[in-house]
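Whether sequence alone determines local backbone shape is best considered at the level of individual chains. In the encoding step, the backbone of a single protein was reduced to a row of integers, each denoting a local shape. For completeness, the protein is quoted in full, as a sequence line and a line of structure tokens.
***
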Amino acid sequence: MSRQPPRALEHGAVPWLLTGALATAGPHAEHLPPWLSLLVASSLLWRAWLWQQRRPLPPRWSLALLVMAGIAGIAWQFHSLFGKEPGVAMLVLFMALKPMETHHQRDALVIVMLGYFLLLTHYFYSQSIPTGLWLLVATTLLTGALIGLHGGGAQPVMTIARQAALLLLQALPFMCILYLLFPRVTGPLWGLPEESRASLSGLSEQMSPGSISHLIQSGAIAFRSHFAGETPEKADLYWRGPVFDSYDGVTWRTATPPARLPRPAPVIEASGTAYAYTSILEAHNQRWLLALDVATSLPPESSLAPTLEVLAREPLRARTRMSFVSAVDYHANRIEAPAILQQALALPARINPRTRALAHSWQSLPAEKIAAAALAMFRQEDFHYTLRPPLLGADAVDEFLFVTRRGFCEHYASAFVFLMRAAGVPARVVAGYQGGEINPVDGYLTVRQSDAHAWSEIWLAGQGWVRIDPTAAVAPSRIEQGIVAALPEGEPLPSIVRLDATWLRQLRNRWEAANNSWNQWVLGYNPQRQRELLSRAGLRDPDWQSMTASLAILCGLALLIITCWTLPRRRRADPAQRAWQRYCAQLARRGVGRAAWEGPQAFAQRVARERPDLAALTSEAAGCYAQLRYGRHGGEDLLEQLQQCVRRLPPQRS
């Protein structure tokens, strides 16, 4: 049996292939080395020039050299040919060079299939709404390339694009059904576990001068919270993160008590309003969950540490939705463990003598009076709140309190705690976020990295741990109105935080609300969310049998609806076809009917045999219709000529 030769690639299908290759490979230029992006762009431009000039494609040996050189460059750039980065780079290289050897339809199909696969790799880098919209456009282009490969290359561009969009629209119900009902995978679907820990911003396990002021310069969202009832006052919005109780003279760190010492659970005596809320926390690769200070009801798989922060069992490496209940009026640990109090008094020796002397002069006062004296010093003397404090030396607290007097929240919290400990009052530094902004579009309180803050806690006999924010003594507007109101113009805050124009702020709110919905219902559609949705639909505790049955029933209904929509729709005849049908109908009345299988030229030949008087007119009409219907060139003149043939038919014989 002879093998049929491969079908040659139509000239008009090449632009669709190149457009699809550019749409799938182009956005990766942001992540590829510049030399590879230049090679990809040059290859696609070269192929487009060859197509336009109708020049032959380069010999295969030259392409083989380019492929080997590209693979060698990727191996040199990434020191490997395995892994996400080199794998994506090789796919992009192949996508750019494959069109240079595409002679047949089979080769073009390889490009389209490679394009569909390459689209998936974009989610390794971004899962945002713009990425999803771009991939939808790219999928339409690739589907249009498939249509062009199978005889549609001569059709207008918009006709092919419309057909591709219609095919994707018909697939949309099945996609939604499978998305909603197919068993979800726990954890992020896109990205590798080890790489998901990189490039995450947020609070760290230590704090030194400048660490929080550097974080403030990011407008990225740290988390969003939605309160079931009323929202607390802005001055009460302290979101607790890590607690630092170990100091080496420069850096504050979290301290872990020895394993042999007991770690009693904290005792919280809450009063006043209890606030129930749901938080959507961005991944920060740490265990703390940033609850409103202080949490009284915790989400599953979490616990309240002895230092009152809420800790998850594992670091938060994916966006997570959690529910809390918190009280802003409380007493915490009126009776504290001696080991924790001892740790809250520890100071390194032989540093900051002037600060120690000032603290010793207050030792005869009650603890509340000592704290009040320190706050009065910050409030009444010439201290300044700034993101650009001068560098400090070995005796950092001495230089800050008595020389520079310019600092950010971590400077004031650190100096206050040092003063308290030197005066014999147990104290520690708490880092977290303060404030937030309600988005009026979706009602979520948005807390950004620019809301990062540090404050202090002291332990008072009979009261327990009491929050004291020394920054409020220097810049009260920071707590009451936010970071923008507290800092002078010119401080390096992100532009998104300093938005003044009403329309820009509204646009930002709508965009962030849309992103929040996307994060919850698309990226964050995890097994828990799926169970919630199915419970609302009446499926309680669904198993795989009920899920499979639901999938089959809904997919069958969708197929039935699409079938009922497409089958009865009769294809509209174009003007040329309508004119030809009228001509044939007129001939049928004159005794010469056209069979359904009969083409225009065959029909004209039969008319010439049966009705010689109508032969010339029918031949003219059939020629016009054949050219309009099947030819590459036609226009209004031919259509008008065909319509004139209908009018020129002689009257019927009596």
The chain has three domains: 13-155, 206-498, 575-648. The longest helix spans residues 157-181. The first strand starts at residue 206 and ends at 207. The CA atoms of residues 50 and 56 lie 7 Å apart.
